[in-house]
# Entry
Amino acid sequence: MGGYAESVRERVRAARAAVATAASADDAYALAVAQDELDDALRIAHNIGIDPDRGSGPGPQSGAPA
# Structure
C-alpha cells in the first residue's frame, strides 16, 4: 500500500495548501471548496488507517521511538 498511501498523503498536502492559499486570499468560496477537499482526503486517510502526516516532514520515522 506504499504508493497508495503516499498518494493519499499528497492529496492531504495539496488540500492543506489550497486551504492556506484560499484563506490568505480571503476567498470564501475557494476556502469552502478547499476545506471540503481536505475533509474528504482526511476521511479517506483515517478510514483506511493512513497517517496523513507520516513522511511529510521532520518527525519520528518508522521504527523510531515516539
